[in-house]
Write a structure and sequence with these properties.
elongated
């Protein structure tokens, strides 16, 4: 990188930071080499902090958030980078940039909340899912707010707090219907089915899971169909319909292999 060498030799730290950020973007966009992109962005950030270029600091922090969130799936670090970018953009009055970084931060909080849920860290999961929901509401991202509150309802189901789960899932259902979001509604119905199964209402659970499956099939969302079929199989097993349970699990396994 000749330009980097030149700026380094003449001790132009602002120019050096610009080149480092550009190299990071090349590794990110062209080479899809995300660890290298991260390293160059971090080097650029260090110099931009040194010369106090706050606009470009915020841009680099946002880029670091994107790499961690989207490709490295290091959601906790992504959230921290977005929080720092948010502070700077708020201070300098960058309104369009502020809304963008808030959206990215909420998305990272939602993903991290779901990740914590899978690890069984339900209380911590709720902290980040609520944060995601509140930000999405604040920036008028209703579709994403509906997804977040559906995830909150799912965590409440796992905690055995069925009334709270039903309340959140009903809110999610209302949002999705208002927006005509069929894909989102399918996800809400899947969560409702899980809730009703755990609450001892298998007939209603079957109704919601079948509705979820129907939406996903119409939309051709194969990867989303598989967990719903698995849930239907678990429900059939719970109700001692073992033949039906085997059919569902065989069907799900076939889809996984295709």
């Amino acid at each position: 990188w000749p330009a980097l060498e030149i700026y380094s030799q003449i001790r132009d730290e602002r120019g050096e930071a610009e080149v480092l950020g550009g190299i990071g973007a090349v590794y990110f966009n062209e080479y899809k080499s995300f660890q290298e992109a991260l390293d160059y962005y971090l080097a650029a950030l260090k110099l931009r902090e040194k010369v106090d270029d706050r606009q470009l600091m915020a841009n680099t922090l946002n880029s670091l958030g994107i790499v961690n969130k989207t490709y490295l799936r290091n959601y906790k670090d992504a959230i921290q980078y977005y929080e720092r970018a948010e502070t700077i953009r708020s201070d300098i009055g960058d309104i369009p940039g502020l809304k963008s970084v808030k959206y990215n931060m909420a998305d990272a909080c939602h993903l991290y909340g779901n990740q914590l849920n899978l690890k069984g860290k339900f209380d911590e999961s709720l902290v980040f899912l609520r944060k995601a929901y509140n930000i999405f509401i604040n920036i008028d991202a209703k579709k994403e707010a509906g997804d977040a509150v559906s995830s909150i309802g799912y965590v409440y189901t796992k905690l055995g707090q069925y009334n709270a789960a039903a309340e959140k899932l009903t809110e999610a259902e209302e949002i999705k219907k208002e927006l005509n979001d069929s894909l989102g509604l399918a996800g809400v119905y899947n969560h409702f089915g899980i809730l009703l199964q755990r609450a001892g209402r298998p007939e209603r659970a079957l109704e919601y899971l079948n509705n979820s499956l129907s939406f996903y099939e119409k939309l051709g969302e194969i990867q989303d169909i598989i967990p719903v079929i698995d849930n239907l199989g678990a429900l059939a097993f719970d109700t001692k319909d073992y033949r039906k349970a085997e059919e569902y699990h065989t069907s799900g396994l076939k889809l996984c292999r295709e």
